[in-house]
Amino acid sequence: MKATKTLTGIAAFLAGAVSLFAQEKNLVMNGSFENTSGKIRSTGTYYLADSISSSNNTTVDLFSKEACGHDYDIPTNYMGTQESKSGNNYAGIIAFYADDAGVFKTKPGYRKYSEYIQLSCNAPLVAGKAYTVSYAISLAEKSAYAVSGFGIYFSKEKTDVKNNAFLKIVPQAVSFAILGNTEWTTLTGTYVASGGERYLTLGCFQNEMDTLKIIAANTNNSRKAYYYIDDVSVIEEINPLKDLSMVSAGACYQLNNLQFETDKAVILPGSFTEMKSLSDFLKSHQEVVVYISGYTDKTGTDEHNNKLSEQRAAAVKEYLVKDGIEQNRMKTKGYGEKHTIDKQNENSLVNRRVEITICAAPAR
Fold first, then answer.
1. In this structure, are 75 and 184 located in the same domain?
2. The pLDDT of residue 237
3. Are 330 and 290 in contact, with CB atoms under 8 Å apart?
């Protein structure tokens, strides 16, 4: 169960937009993939880059101006043409692999295939300290799809999953916007450490993902959403707000004064003060994006409760959009009667709730 807070104090998340930080003190080891132990000749050569691994046993690629063979050259390679953001190298991953042609009917696991890069920090992150996290990303030109749900997961231990499907973990930072730019885009956010984190996993997270088909089927590598990655960095912020230790990406806030009509997704007028407070916060702090999660009590069937919780989360998003908040800053999901707060009285009002979870800062 996630610990929840009230909406008061959410602004403590916001140091990333204005803080000054030391550019030269990147804690990520080999974040630009420059330190390699051999020539790049084929697919899946991430292991040639120092301190780089795959989180789920997949064939993460490296590209280089000094590659042996045109497929992995920079700027022109088998997935498109892209100069490096800096230095001589960058990495590449399949974020999403569709099955448009139906060729994987006997291997349904391929429909869930996704690659993740894992990088190491040269020192553990310190509990309560704020860090500016950034990476450059570019959609390869020969991709057929673009996706959202790209993000970072921090961990104390290495992530080492033995299958090649989407990771079933919750990232601390994620982008909701479809990442369709074939030029470099730098995504930046703020992360407040729990303490002891040494690894970060970078990739596409399925529960937060939307997909967009961008070319016709069966053409031009038509099943992939393939992304180039460069310049991954984690830098301690020098001047964070004093109470940043109280709030981080992943912090959850319960809307305590949000009420709906009985068994409906209609927000009652008495809840508008709470909704206005959330809207004003999002308008004032453009760097924050959020999950909106809906929950019900145990009354009714699972199917009914799942649908109702989704509709209530969507109603909150609809209110915010009408009040001027951009759609791509919000992601909704319904959990039905899962994750009850009051387990003694599972039909309690407290279980019929909507929660807001801060998850990331978009590109700036």
1. yes
2. 74
3. yes
Q: Which two tokens stand for residue 180?
A: 């369709």
* CA R_g for the chain: 21
CA distance 321 to 331: 12
Q: Domain count of the chain?
A: 2
Structural domain for 334, as ranges:
4-12+243-360
The single-letter code of the amino acid at 112 is K
Residues 215 and 251 grouped into a single domain: no
Integer Cα distance of 130 and 132 in angstroms = 7
**Which residues are CB-contacts of 46 (< 8 A; sequence separation ≥ 6)?**
52, 53, 54, 59, 60, 61, 62, 91, 117
Q: Is the predicted pLDDT of residue 347 greater than 80, yes or no?
A: no
Asked if 202 and 232 count as a contact pair (C-beta separation under 8 A), the reply is: yes
pLDDT one-digit tens code per residue, 296-319 = 777 778 888 889 989 999 999 999
Supply the DSSP symbol for 97.
Answer: E
Identify the CATH number of the domain in which residue 274 sits. 3.30.1330.60
Query: Do both 216 and 256 map to the same domain?
Result: no
Domain co-membership, 188 together with 263: no
What percentage of the chain carries pLDDT values higher than 70? 76
Domain boundary (236, 269, 289) is at 236
- Residue located via tokens 């691994």: 53
User: pLDDT tens across 40-81, in order?
Assistant: 988 889 999 999 999 999 999 999 999 988 899 999 999 999
Domain boundary residue among 178, 209, 236?
236
Q: Are residues 256 and 142 in the same domain?
A: no
- Indicate whether 294 and 230 sit together in one domain: no
Any idea what DSSP says for residue 218? T
Report the CATH number at residue 167.
Answer: 2.60.120.260
Question: What pLDDT is recorded for position 168?
Answer: 87
| Structure tokens given for 326 | 């951009």
CA dihedral 350, 310, 255, 281 (to 10 degrees): 180
Start-to-end Cα distance in the chain: 32
- List, in sequence order, the alpha helices (H) in the chain: 272-284, 302-322
Residues 223 and 150 in one domain: yes
Non-local CB neighbours of 126 within 8 Å, separated by 6+ positions: 193, 195, 236
243 CB contacts (<8 Å, ≥6 apart)?
Answer: 9, 12
Greater model confidence, 113 or 16: 113
* 205 SS3 class: coil
